[in-house]
């Protein structure tokens, strides 16, 4: 049944073109019928014949009869009972009135009029074909692109020419395809980097086990404990990153969260200085408390890891947006890399040897901000170093 449908299925452009032809044909038949009816029911005219003295010698009230090539004829009844025919021949062409026979090709009479309508219908059918074909060609190109994309070629993009519905559909397809390609590449990068990052603590654990013979030293025991904690942190952050990337996953209960209280708790835990502004107002946002806490903790741990001085945290709200800034006094982030540091497992040059950190902290911060309709970015610190900003929609209006 499917093969039969595929064999007898008409392409879209043929269906549209046939619909145009049928519409023109129906109009042709309708106009021809109306013209014939109008001709057959032409209004009657009064014909009067007079002699030289002005007396009426013939009179009748009849409908005109059109004879192809002979003009118009009127039957007239004479006073003596005879019937004659009065004929009005076609108007002769004047000298210089166009070339001879210039309009002889035009059809005459009711049949000729139908032929003329048929010629017009044929011209419309021929002229509409390239227009319909051009319109549906873009749909076929879009269909081909979707099929190639569905077969695995995620780099397929459609031309966005025009301002009609097809162009809008192409733009939406390109946006969705780009989003899917980005997510797939992100997951591939995540898996590749995760396997690489897991090798280092595993190698250190293996070496520590070899050094435990015959009796483990306190230093070896501490090293193994630290590596196990690093592995646990890495696995935990990979799982959280995967859940945040999956839009349909349940990230927790959405509730009103006291962002000021969270920032105060995490700042005290990390030994950072908190500034809530002159008014010291409480900033409330809508979100998942444990995820927002995780974002603040990652920012504070990142700042403490790279800062050469105290870490400063400030929180503010302008009525619609709540902003948390975590500023350090470290080496700062070059402008060219302020976006790349939010990629999974990306580290600045020379940072991979530092103690702690697996390169997922800032990526998780941005994912958490995105899931809360917010953003996360990096900017310069006026006193030297870098400021990481967490921007979220506020419930205070």
Brief account:
The protein has eight helices and twelve strands.
Counting DSSP H or I runs of 4 or more residues, the number of helices is: 8
Rg computed from alpha carbons, rounded to a whole number of angstroms: 44 Å
Q: Give the quaternary arrangement of the chains.
A: single chain
Kindly report how far apart the N and C termini lie.
61 Å
Task: Return the average pLDDT rounded to an integer.
Answer: 76
Summarize the biggest pleated sheet.
5 strands, antiparallel
Q: Which features does this protein show?
A:
single chain, 397 residues, alpha+beta, Helix Hairpins, Heat Shock Protein 90, 5-stranded antiparallel β-sheet, 5-stranded mixed β-sheet, 8 helices, 49% helix
Write structural notes for this entry:
The structure is a single chain. With 397 residues, the chain is α+β, with helices and mostly antiparallel strands. The chain has 3 domains: 2-88 and 108-148, no CATH class; 165-245, Helix Hairpins; 255-393, Heat Shock Protein 90. 49% of the residues lie in helices and 17% in strands. Strands 1, 2, 3, 4 and 5 form a 5-stranded antiparallel β-sheet that branches. Strands 7-9-10-12-11 form a 5-stranded mixed β-sheet, covered by helices on one side. A hairpin with a 3-residue loop joins strand 9 (312-317) and strand 10. The model is unreliable at 1-8 and 98-103 (pLDDT under 50).
Layout of strands and helices, then pairs:
Layout: H1 2-8, H2 12-40, E1 45-50, E2 56-62, E3 65-67, E4 71-78, E5 83-88, H3 109-150, H4 165-211, H5 218-245, E6 255-258, H6 259-270, E7 273-275, E8 284-287, H7 289-306, E9 312-317, E10 321-327, H8 361-371, E11 375-380, E12 386-393
Parallel strand pairs: 7-9
Antiparallel strand pairs: 1-2, 2-4, 3-4, 4-5, 6-8, 9-10, 10-12, 11-12
Helix pairs in contact: 2-3, 3-4, 4-5, 5-8, 6-7, 7-8
